[in-house]
Design goal:
Layout (H helix, E strand, L loop, with lengths): L2 H11 L8 E2 L1 H8 L3 H13 L3 E3 L6 E3 L1 H14 L1 H4 L1 H11 L2 E8 L2 E8 L14 E3 L4 H7 L4 H9 L13 H14 L2 E4 L6 E9 L5 E10 L8 H25 L2
Antiparallel strand pairs: 1-3, 2-3, 4-5, 4-9, 5-6, 7-8, 8-9
Helix pairs in contact: 2-3, 6-10
Length: 254
């Protein structure tokens, strides 16, 4: 296999997302701008090894269980459930909202652990959800600690509006990121999902490089019922404990 073939194959996988979880051969070939025969062979190879599955009725392809196995392997290596989830659950009990651990992956934040609120009405996101770094507290608090060059790279790749509150002006966004970094936390409302608030703080590796964030999130209408300063204090306290584990983890798995 040539490097170009490998690049095309891996690029193909990136088209499978929460917004477009399944693709037909010709549809994907048109989207990628390459021959449908090449796309078919690539999809068939991924299906052979369990990375993709084809619906027998629609003939469309979607991600296979092999990715779930790999994801579980990574999660077990990090031992998030054993060390981090109990802290997140404790924080969820204190603030009575859902807690999210978001991991930096290139220009996105990926939800890798969730401790849900006990409220019947709550903000729900699936594990593995991928979100651009320029939107929402959990991601913007990560982006704020990236280099200015990386921030500009992200903004100039193109930004899209998820809600009417999504910041699309580069100058305003960069100013917002500077302010977030000065404060050490980020608060947002309705930037990624309407009527949802987020309060996030950064998490670093042992080299003090940004790698993740810890975020309280829930329906906007409950913010008035929440003591913001107390919630932020709890968030910072529990993030400090998680930070201790991440320092240990990252020093052993560089």
């Amino acid at each position: 296999m040539s490097l170009k073939t490998l690049d095309n194959s891996l690029e193909l996988l990136n088209y499978f997302s929460k917004e477009t979880p399944s693709w037909g051969v010709r549809e994907l070939a048109k989207e990628m701008g390459i021959s449908h025969s090449i796309v078919y062979r690539t999809l068939a190879s991924f299906e052979k090894y369990g990375f993709l599955e084809q619906d027998p009725k629609t003939k469309r392809y979607e991600l296979g269980l092999r990715f779930l196995e790999f994801g579980q392997m990574v999660k077990e290596k990090m031992r998030l459930s054993e060390h981090v989830y109990p802290i997140m659950k404790r924080l969820a009990g204190k603030v009575e909202e859902s807690i999210f651990l978001t991991w930096l992956d290139k220009s996105d934040g990926v939800t890798v652990e969730i401790a849900e609120s006990t409220h019947r009405i709550k903000y729900e996101v699936s594990l593995g959800t991928r979100t651009p770094l320029y939107v929402g507290a959990s991601c913007k608090v990560i982006m704020a600690y990236l280099s200015k060059e990386k921030q500009l790279e992200i903004t100039r790749e193109g930004m899209k509006a998820f809600t009417k509150n999504t910041i699309l002006d580069e100058e305003i966004l960069l100013s917002d990121l500077d302010e977030i970094k000065k404060k050490g936390w980020c608060y947002s409302v309705g930037e990624f999902s309407d009527a949802v608030f987020g309060l996030g703080v950064p998490l670093f590796n042992s080299q003090n490089e940004i790698i993740a964030s810890l975020t309280i999130s829930g329906p906007e209408y409950r913010v008035e019922e929440m003591d913001f300063e107390v919630a932020l204090t709890h968030l910072l306290q529990e993030a400090k404990e998680i930070q201790g584990y991440l320092n240990h983890f990252s020093s052993h798995y560089k």
